[in-house]
Amino acid sequence: MNNDNAIHLGIIPDGNRRWAKSRSLNPWKGHEQAIENFKALTEWCRNDERISVMTVWCFSTENWKRERQEIDMLMKMLEDYLRKEQESFIENKTKFCHSGRKDRIPSSLAELIKEVEEKTFDQTDFTLHLAVDYGGRDEIERAVEKKCHGEPCRTMTQPMSSFNRAQDDINIRSYLDHPELPDIDIIIRTSGEKRTSNFFLWQAAYAEWIFEDKLFPDFEVRDLEKAVSDYEHRGRRYGS
């Protein structure tokens, strides 16, 4: 998609476990329903010329605090989804990429993520970007570590005036997980939570936020379409 005005959409799909609990189901049943819902939303985004990138937060660096059985089930669901959908990514000219750590998730999932990223690298019509074992602070810390591996790190005792802020912005960004992706334009968080929660802190600096009361398994395509329409009517001033 060669549309300079195309939207980078971010989604924080909250409420899966609450959806399951309200129905007296195991937590992972909410995740199962969320994946089915996610598929419909992805299909809509892929076919809407306004959307170029869809970023979805699947598992945060803090989610390791959850029960082991729930984590294991969610990791298996993500792996099953990628195995089933990888060929359709190519058919639909969809580039797949992952942000987050690969050293703590199951090795089979990490290897599959890498495989699908390589297979779809040259696709250009649409990008599906999944955040798995991801945290905004963690990404920035990893970026700084990578940057400092080849050059001395500045200390906090140095005055801000002692370096070029614009140049440092470019340098840090180039060490993020996917510096080639545009900054996020709009972020939708479901389930009524009104927090940024460590979601792509660098890339979301000027994002517009929409907080939706519906739990994610109940968040429908028509809700997404309304949110995108709402975003288009907002005036973005970037501090000016």
Structure commentary:
The chain is of the alpha/beta class. It has a single domain (7-135, 183-232), classed as Undecaprenyl pyrophosphate synthetase, CATH 3.40.1180. The protein is 41% helix and 16% strand. It is built from seven helices and six strands, in the order E-H-H-E-H-E-H-E-H-H-E-E-H. It has helices at 16-21, 27-47, 68-91, 107-119, 136-149, 165-173, 221-232, and strands spanning 7-12, 51-60, 94-99, 126-134, 186-189, 208-211. The chain has a six-stranded parallel β-sheet, with helices on both faces. Strand 3 (94-99), helix 4 and strand 4 (126-134) form a beta-alpha-beta unit. Helix 2 packs parallel to helix 3 and helix 3 (68-91) runs parallel beside helix 4. The radius of gyration is 18 Å and the shape is globular.
Distance between the termini: 29 Å
Helical percentage: 40-55%
- Percentage of residues in DSSP E strands: 15-25%
User: In which order are the strands of the major sheet placed?
Assistant: 3-4-2-1-5-6
In the CATH hierarchy, what is the architecture at level 2? 3-Layer(aba) Sandwich
Say which CATH homologous superfamily is assigned.
Answer: Decaprenyl diphosphate synthase-like
CATH topology, what is it called? Undecaprenyl pyrophosphate synthetase
Radius of gyration: 18 Å
User: What is the residue-averaged pLDDT?
Assistant: 91
